[in-house]
Automatic annotation (TrEMBL):
This is Ubiquitin-like domain-containing protein. It holds the Pfam family ubiquitin. Residues 48-116 form the Ubiquitin-like domain. One of its GO terms (biological process) is protein stabilization. GO terms for molecular function: adenyl-nucleotide exchange factor activity; protein-folding chaperone binding. One of its GO terms (cellular component) is cytoplasm. Keywords: Chaperone. PROSITE patterns: UBIQUITIN_2. The keyword DNA-binding does not apply.
Length: 248
């Protein structure tokens, strides 16, 4: 018994073309489309020039005739400064989907297409710009506070050195420094930060807390020291009597 493969309906002697096995490919975005295969030895699809209108700008781009609109959008990124998701490509009065092929939509060499910015993407970019501005403002504020904390940290080190040397420090100096550090902590708490700036804010807050805790300990140690009063005792000499002076 002969197989029907390669024959028309299994008929004897009637030879037909072998069945064509369709191949599929996954396009960006998750859409499954039929793969376009080129016969061995054939040239790649020719390039076509497309006239693009984007606002008041007009320019041309070159793409493959069998490219998709997604691939066209990739070529348009450099000219429009818009990402693919931000572009809307209009051809013959209709917005085209990413997975549509140019040639199947009738796009030919020198065809005119209109590119528009997606309104939703414009709003997202505006929100992102405002967000970046806030982040930059927060970063500058944290940097300014960090410089102030550097000065106070140096004073804490100086006080610690004095007390370690058994030199009593005026208590007002310690309490004033604690108050100044607490003010910086309040200012830092009022800064809205996110991302890297949030991390920097956390580090600076820990540093301020560490300085305050160190001053609390130094305040107790300083209270146990006695104030050293330096006095000068002059040696006195008895003046010679008048009688003795006359002998000379």
């Amino acid at each position: 018994m002969m197989r029907g493969s390669g024959y028309d309906g299994g008929s004897r002697g009637v030879k037909t073309d072998p069945p064509v096995e369709l191949e599929w490919e996954m396009r960006p975005g998750g859409m499954l489309v039929q793969r376009r295969l080129l016969d061995p030895g054939t040239q790649p699809p020719p390039m076509i020039r497309l006239r693009i209108c984007y606002g008041e700008s007009k320019f041309e781009v070159s793409v493959g005739r069998r490219a998709t609109f997604r691939e066209l959008k990739k070529e348009l990124e450099a000219e429009t400064c818009l990402r693919q998701a931000e572009q809307r490509v209009i051809y013959r009065g209709k917005e085209r989907e990413n997975e549509e092929f140019l040639d199947r939509c009738g796009v030919k060499d020198r065809s005119k297409l209109v590119v528009m910015e997606d309104p939703s993407s414009r709003e997202r970019r505006y929100i992102e710009m405002r967000r970046n501005a806030k982040i930059q403002s927060s970063a500058l504020a944290i940097a300014a506070l960090s410089l102030e904390v550097d000065k106070y940290a140096a004073q804490v080190s100086a006080i610690e050195k004095s007390i370690s040397s058994r030199k009593k420090v005026p208590e007002l100096q310690i309490t004033t420094l604690i108050e100044l550090l607490m003010r910086q902590a309040v200012k830092l708490d009022g800064i809205v930060a996110e991302g890297d700036t949030s991390f920097q804010k956390t580090l600076l807050a820990k540093r301020v807390q560490k300085c305050v805790e160190a001053l609390d300990v130094l305040k107790l140690s300083n209270g146990k020291l006695k104030t050293v009063i330096v006095t000068t005792k002059w040696e006195t000499f008895d003046l010679p009597s008048t009688t003795n002076l006359e002998l000379f």
